[in-house]
Design brief:
Blueprint (H helix, E strand, L loop, with lengths): L1 H6 L12 H11 L8 H13 L5 H6 L4 H7 L25 H11 L23 H9 L13 H19 L5 H10 L8 H10 L2 E3 L6 H21 L6 H11 L1 E5 L2 H16 L17 E3 L16 H15 L4 H23 L6 H9 L3 H4 L1 H4 L4 E6 L13 H7 L10 H12 E12 L9 H10 L1 E7 L13 E7 L9 E4 L10 H8 L1 E2 L5 E2 L2 E2 L4 H13 E3 H4 L5 E2 L6 H4 E2 L1 H10 L7 E5 L15 E3 L11 H7 L3 H5 L18 H4 L3 E5 L1 E2 L5 E3 L4 E2 L3 E4 L4 H7 L2 H10 L1 E3 L3 E3 L2 H4 L3 E3 L3 H16 L6 H15 L2
Parallel strand pairs: 1-2, 1-4, 2-3, 4-5, 6-8, 15-20
Antiparallel strand pairs: 5-7, 6-7, 8-9, 10-11, 12-24, 13-21, 14-16, 15-16, 17-19, 17-21, 18-23, 22-23
Helix pairs in contact: 8-9, 8-11, 11-12, 12-13, 14-15, 30-33, 33-34
Pfam family, one: Eco57I
Keywords: Coiled coil, DNA-binding, Methyltransferase, Restriction system, S-adenosyl-L-methionine, Transferase
Catalytic activity: a 2'-deoxyadenosine in DNA + S-adenosyl-L-methionine = an N(6)-methyl-2'-deoxyadenosine in DNA + S-adenosyl-L-homocysteine + H(+)
Length: about 800
């Protein structure tokens, strides 16, 4: 694909034809000089590794008018950059790309699309294949990328995040500039109101931007284009920064942007896109060699190396040598020069590592973490020595905590300020980004929104509240922002500083219709300024001032549900394998007929979906309540029933006898048999029910073991449902997650008996009607509950 784009520039010629690949392929097919033909070995390897990667190729082609080399690959430029350096696989003669595959690619794929060398603008809809397609191909086709939790970010979102990060950066660096002037400059490329455009240019030239999970380079390219457009604006309107587009891009790539990813192939694609973006800007027949990006866009694990803030000081002489060697390496062309510079860089890195981590002071586990992880303070020493990065921008991977258990110990040690045993991987990227940012630096992430409300996000919320000013939160809820991922996402922008108070803009995006994908307009039309103290400590209230006022009134009028019921909010029973332990009435009768003792451990069962508003839809379901320590001597029929499932039962994650329930909740099992309030873990509407049948409930429910119809009326009121929607985690399908961390905080009004009595009577009517045609009674309940809250 890279060659297809490059040939559009006219730099590749075969038989003086610029439709290079097609002509090369046709010539190869017409060549009958050998029977052992293979296009990859006979032509492409010479093109990649002798032509495009050989600084002396002009001399080779010049001999005898090119001789053999010109005959097989034509005229090609030296491009360098590490792109066409041979690796171990390239040298393996046993790796063969069959001609049939080449034919499908050239004739079946490339010939059917219009390739353009200009990457589309954020809102462009031109039907053409641009260099951005390299990133999309990577995201869609690379095996395991989705398993690693990586998804391709839509370009309008990338552009918005880069622009907002740059606004925060310029505003903090250039305090004399008007905020509106900076916004006009970045949003509209209009520099007319800037007081000191020269200072703005120098500040843009100095910015250090990093994506710690860069993937195929969407944010690296996004920031490259934003910085380029801003500098071109200054040249066009103010006459400063007199350079070609190629020179500006090269300077930005060499000076401003950094990236790291754990996937080597992703890193190669990111480098490839940067090279291509640079190459297409050169106007002329002899393009200069591409920069070497080995020490700019790097492969490594961003999280497992120790906290860079805890490292020792590095002497200026080493930083100076390191910076100079890396700068020379970027533009080194000869293999011998690159090799010697790489050796010098690695030697200086060893010295820096010794100074930052020490030798005797570093315990064995730290040494192992340093060797396995990406050691930021060493690899990007020239940035960390100056205090860190100005901007961290990323779409961190979406990986659930069960899938990275092997690195949990390192994460616990590296990120005590955000760690929770149930934290998903993206939480630690927030922690790392804040470690890498200098004071005043900008954090711009798009990630899951669950950490706003989930218990595992408490420490992260507290850490951000303590160290940052949150500029904006744009929550997409369940909207499908990523076409290939069912992830609930939001855009989070914060500045690493705790002393300056900024307003926080919160936007709950309602749809992906117009004005989306213009995120800025969506925020202007739908956003709200959060009240002061909304993001205070670990408890964040993401709502407008009206909702916040209602929440505060409700909280002032009562006590938390957890306190009201003496913290008795119980999670349901987890079987670990429902097929074995959940039976119907016929099987129940069969087991009891064989062993009458079985009746004692067979309980009526209600699951989450059975729980409706006011009522439980009792079904023909029973639970084999095989608690831990159950005596099976008189339960032979039950054991015989379970035996066919023994292998699956033994494979469960927790330790118990194979015939026992995984989590029987034995400690409070007697409470299931009493009158109680039951509600589901996940719901789209209020679904608090009253059970008097002694049903045992599964792990998709919670139980409150009280006979309290007043409480049931409060919980099923519209006010409480609005309260829960404000705090509970959103799920796909307009549902919310009613975990006890949220429900335990529901304010329950302290009412007199005379205030409770009419609500109890109305609730009893709803129960007698089994929840059918209860609208008038529910309306009156709402009115009475609202009065108790003072609403």
């Amino acid at each position: 694909m890279f060659i297809v784009f490059i040939q559009k520039k006219g730099w590749l010629k075969f038989n003086e034809q610029t439709n290079y690949l097609e002509t090369l392929w046709q010539d190869y097919q017409n060549d009958n000089s050998t029977s052992d033909k293979n296009f990859y070995h006979n032509r492409l390897t010479h093109l990649f590794f002798t032509g495009l990667n050989n600084p002396q190729q002009t001399d080779i082609i010049g001999i005898n008018n090119g001789g053999f080399l010109r005959q097989i690959i034509g005229t090609v430029p030296y491009l360098n950059g590490g792109l066409f350096e041979q690796d171990e696989d390239d040298r393996n003669p046993n790796i063969i790309v069959p001609d049939q595959a080449i034919d499908v690619i050239l004739q079946g794929l490339f010939s059917n699309f219009n390739f353009t060398v200009t990457e589309s603008t954020p809102l462009d809809v031109e039907v053409a294949v641009d260099p951005e397609m390299l990133g999309k191909v990577f995201e869609e086709l690379v095996t395991g990328r989705h398993e690693s939790g990586s998804y391709y970010t839509p370009k309008p979102i990338v552009s918005f995040m880069c622009r907002e990060a740059l606004k925060g950066y310029l505003s903090s660096k250039l305090t004399s500039e008007n905020k509106e002037a900076i916004e006009l400059f970045i949003d509209e490329y209009n520099a007319i109101n800037l007081k000191n455009p020269e200072a703005v240019l120098e500040t843009l030239k100095q910015v250090k931007v990093c994506d710690p999970a860069c993937g195929s380079g969407a944010y690296l390219l996004g920031m490259l284009h934003e910085l380029l457009d801003l500098r071109q604006c200054l040249f066009a309107t103010k006459g400063i920064d007199y350079k070609t587009v190629y020179q500006r891009k090269l300077e930005i790539i060499e000076t401003n942007i950094y990236g790291v990813d754990i996937d080597p192939f992703a890193v190669n694609i990111a480098r490839l896109r940067l090279w291509l973006s640079l190459a297409v800007e050169y106007e002329g027949d002899n393009p200069p060699p591409l920069p070497n990006l080995k020490f700019k866009i790097e492969t490594g694990d961003s999280l497992t190396a120790p906290n860079p803030q805890g490292s020792g000081m590095v002497r200026e002489e080493f930083i100076h040598r390191f910076r100079e060697a890396k700068a020379k390496y970027l533009r080194a062309h000869l293999g011998s020069d690159k090799q010697s510079l790489e050796q010098e860089i690695n030697e200086v890195k060893k010295q820096i590592a010794l100074l930052t981590h020490g030798s005797a002071s570093v315990i064995a586990s730290d040494k192992e973490a340093i060797s396995k992880g990406f050691d930021w303070v060493v690899e990007f020493a020239e940035v960390l020595a100056e205090g860190g990065f100005d901007i961290q921008v990323a779409n961190p991977p979406y990986v659930r905590m069960e899938l990275f258990k092997e690195i949990k110990p390192a994460l616990r040690k590296n990120f005590p300020e955000v760690h929770s045993d149930r934290s998903d991987l993206y939480c630690y990227f927030y922690g790392r980004a804040l470690q890498l940012l200098k004071q005043g630096g900008m954090l711009a992430f798009i990630s899951s929104n669950k950490w706003f409300r989930a218990k595992y996000g408490e420490k992260l919320r507290q850490h951000i509240a303590d160290t940052c000013q949150v500029r904006s939160i744009t929550d997409f809820g369940e909207l499908p922002v990523f076409e290939s991922a069912a992830v609930l996402v939001m855009i989070f922008l914060a500045q690493k500083q705790s002393d300056i108070k900024l307003n926080t803009q919160f936007t709950q995006v309602k749809s992906l219709e117009s004005p989306y994908p213009d995120i800025k307009t969506v925020i202007n039309e739908q956003g709200t300024i959060l009240p002061n103290n909304s993001l205070n400590g670990k408890n964040w209230l993401l709502s407008d001032s009206t909702t916040a006022s209602l929440i505060n009134k409700m909280s002032a009028a009562g006590i938390p549900l957890g306190e009201y019921v003496n913290e008795k909010i119980y999670y349901g029973i987890k079987t670990g394998f429902n097929k074995a332990f959940v039976i119907d009435g016929a099987k129940r009768a069969e087991l009891i007929a064989k062993d009458t003792k079985s009746a004692e451990i067979i309980k009526p069962l209600a699951v989450g979906d059975d729980v409706r508003k006011w009522r439980i839809n009792y079904k023909d379901k029973y639970l084999l309540y095989m608690y831990h320590g159950v005596d099976i001597s008189e339960l032979k029929s039950v054991i015989e029933h379970l035996k066919p499932y023994r292998q699956q039962l033994e494979n469960r994650a927790t330790k118990q006898k194979w015939y026992e329930l995984q989590q029987p909740q034995l400690k409070y099992s007697k409470e299931f048999e009493k009158p109680k309030i039951v509600y589901p873990v996940i719901a789209k509407e209020s679904r608090f029910a009253f059970d008097i049948m002694g049903a045992f409930t599964n792990d998709k429910t919670f139980t409150i073991p009280v006979n309290d119809l007043y409480l049931l009326g409060i919980l099923n009121s519209s006010m409480v449902w609005d309260y829960l929607k404000t705090f509970c985690s959103d799920l796909l399908g307009k549902s919310i997650e009613l975990r006890s961390i949220y429900t335990s905080k529901i304010p329950i009004p302290l009412a007199s008996e005379s205030e409770k009595e009419p609500i109890i009577k109305l609730v009893q009517k709803c129960l007698d009607a089994k929840g059918v045609n209860c609208e008038e009674w529910e309306k009156e309940i709402d009115e009475r509950v609202a009065a108790l809250y003072g609403l």
